[in-house]
Design goal:
The structure is a homodimer of 433-residue chains.
Chain A lengths: L1 H9 L4 H11 L4 E2 L15 H16 L8 H5 L9 H12 L8 E4 L1 H13 L5 E5 L5 H9 L4 E3 L7 H14 L3 E7 L13 H13 L3 E5 L15 H4 L5 E6 L11 E4 L8 H19 L4 H13 L5 H25 L8 E2 L7 E5 L6 H11 L1 E2 L1 E2 L12 E5 L5 H28 L1
């Protein structure tokens, strides 16, 4: 157990700093590393547009078309749960099919705060443990560590996630701990791009409910599907009250807003009082972390939701189109650039999200990433940065959300050059040996 | 030790919720309870003004008068330490005489986040303990508890704060713990309005440096002085590198921005490497709480600082004038309303801040506050909400920042009615007994 935590020191902790540092050092390198939205439509978020959104929100809040603006209260401290739970709950119901009740929704300073609050509140006892996929989003390991909650990785030996959870519950119990929470990104996982199908979702729900494990479902990428049928989030399939739904406006609107939310189900494992109690604990924790989320940011988000009639589907359309093109460019260039070694290099073909995963025939670490940037002008992310053990040392995450198709093609070509150079030098070493 | 912590459950935890609830229940009651800024100058923070500030910041950041706006990067994720450390450090140097280095300044989602991060990072060991005044700001107790750090109250038996600290260090050591941090609001304390003079400040600095205790100096109210000479913050007097300076724009600009900062000294107890290491730990912790502070809020703050030539002294002038009038109205009405029982009711006369403290001849709790609001139409805050023991049960905090002079006079008169009614009924009870 503690071993798993210690290893996260070497791996998952430094992703964000590393990415920023190396990007600063090689500013002209093409970035297939950063998992951030691309802004092609800045005029929709110009200062004038932000001011317009705030006015739209204020009109909405005052219930009049051009009546009194509740300006003074907007500029003040406000409700810890937020100004706009009704608007956000309505959007989640419309766009993501999640049964979100406005009085079970806490607005947070980005999804990271929601995560951080949930982990701390759901694991109050020193023996409480969080289950995570391996690899997983680095921020969840950081949040766990900040609250001194051990993160236990699910085994990758089985493809059956339910079985892996049962096994983890058992192993956690063996060392005197208790699995309380499972963190999961079921749609277009960061960093692996994995999507759980509906059967897998139902199976995880079943196993977690049986073991009274709360699922923290992070759905940052769910709306970014480029082909195929949308899958219902686990929170929409949840019948036992086991899913806390984490959402964010960082990908749909802008990271700079720092507005996210956690939605608590109507009951917690069938107990309505327990759900209300949990909600109150989350609110209290939030009040001691950041008091409340910027009401200026909330008014901007609220105003855009009002202007968009409660759905962001139309708003994200141009971004979807653009990411779709970038993903296609990456996939087709991968096929071209790696044609000659397609037996040794593998990657997945996600139907959405911001990333894909590539398996390499050799280990790839921070030093390799630096060489890649310096010698070949391309930034990629070693998968080991997201890992709790050595299992991910021969993988990279390639992001297609940050660059235009042309850049992506050049980036993949450059990465292929790096790989063939490295394979050649290894072969030379092997021949000389 | 643990006793002190447990008692905070009953007292200091519910202030914010309580204040909101009772204010909702009696909306027409005059509030002498809320410790929030008053907005008389909303046009300075209109949506147009906010947009103008963002443009001013963007021009400043791009280094051109009307050049390219770095819009896309503003809307993105950004540096964890923030966009505007240089501008904030310059303002702290100018307005508050604090030697703030921009590379030792972390922008936070309000001062509460700064507090929360500092407590967690400075007290990593389960035996680490925080010293607090008693009463103290409720948010610090919450932050301590969220990180499972015990808060140990300084004794009120001596007026010598240095002596109280030495005693606390000793008592904490007796139970196998170690005092690591002291939280202090040396100017116009919340909730007591106490101001430490320069000798007291130097004495606290000396005692803390001797015991290697880091001082978290919260200076939310320092600029709000209505008469007399401004005192240098402790961070400005600090020669040994023991003060982390917490600042906020909630009182000077608007709470809704949620922008605060923590400034680390050049050295930590003379060790420059230790200060840099601490800074990096604070940044890492911040990244796992909220990633970074809203860059929209930061651009607004940055833009106002640019527009105001780096100082907020002129900006807050009208607010100072207004709070000054409200404080004078409160003090003169107190003298009038309590003339007949001036031997039994006492209060302090702070030269600044948002509050004053009143001593009562009977206990005053949440129930009493409710009666006050319901029967007499005035909201006041029981001091016990800020206390770690029973010592504050006969005191109230009266806030003059939230209302106009006329309302304040009516509020004090109403509170005097409550008190005389209660004294009479107690006397009747005594006569009948």
């Amino acid at each position: 157990m503690d071993h798993a935590i210690d290893e996260s020191d070497d791996r998952s902790m430094n992703v964000m700093n590393y990415l920023n540092e190396i990007a600063d050092e090689f500013p002209s390198a093409i970035s297939l590393a950063a998992g951030r939205p691309r802004f092609l439509f800045n005029e929709r978020l110009s200062n004038e547009a932000l001011a317009r959104a705030m006015i739209a929100y204020e009109r909405h809040a005052s219930g009049e078309v051009d009546g009194i603006r509740p300006r003074a209260s907007l500029l003040q401290y406000g409700r810890t749960a937020g100004l706009i739970p009704e608007l956000v709950a309505a959007q989640l119901r419309t766009d993501e099919r999640v049964t979100a009740l406005y009085d079970r929704l806490l607005i947070t300073s980005g999804c990271q705060e929601a995560l951080s609050i949930c982990v701390a509140v759901l694991c109050p006892d020193p023996s409480d443990t969080m289950l995570v996929c391996n690899p997983t989003y680095a921020g969840v390991i950081g949040a766990a560590r900040a609250s001194r909650v051990p993160a236990f990785p699910l085994s990758n030996e089985t493809n059956d996630l339910g079985e892996a959870i049962e096994k983890a519950v058992y192993n956690v119990k063996l060392v005197g701990r208790r699995a309380r929470v499972l963190y999961l990104i079921p749609s277009f996982d960061n960093p692996t791009a994995r999507v759980l199908n509906e059967d897998q979702r139902r199976n995880v729900l079943y196993v977690c409910a049986r073991n009274r494990i709360v699922i923290l479902e992070d759905n940052a990428y769910g709306l970014f599907r480029y082909e195929g049928q949308a899958l219902a989030p686990m929170a929409a399939l949840d019948e036992s009250g086991s899913v806390l739904y984490l959402s964010t406006f960082s990908k749909t609107l802008a990271p700079a807003l720092r507005v996210g939310a956690v939605t608590v189900p109507r009951t917690l494992f069938g107990d309505e009082g327990a759900a209300i109690d949990l909600m109150n604990q989350l609110i209290e924790r939030k009040s001691f972390m950041t008091v409340n989320t910027s009401q200026i940011s909330q008014a901007i988000v609220g105003g855009i939701l009002v202007e968009q009639n409660g759905t962001l589907k139309r708003w994200i359309e141009p971004a979807l189109l653009s990411y779709h093109r970038s993903r296609d460019a990456m996939l087709s260039q991968l096929r071209i650039s790696f044609a000659s070694i397609s037996d040794r290099i593998h990657w997945n073909c996600p139907a959405g999200g911001f990333f894909l995963t590539m398996d390499l025939p050799f280990p790839f670490d921070a030093e390799a990433a630096r060489v890649c940037a310096e010698k070949h002008g391309v930034l990629v992310t070693p998968m080991r940065f997201f890992a709790l053990d050595k299992s991910q040392d021969r993988r990279v995450r390639l992001s297609f959300s940050g660059e235009e198709p042309d850049q992506i093609r050049m980036g993949i070509e450059a990465f292929a050059m790096y790989i063939s150079t490295r394979l050649e030098s290894e072969q030379r070493g092997w021949l000389q040996a």
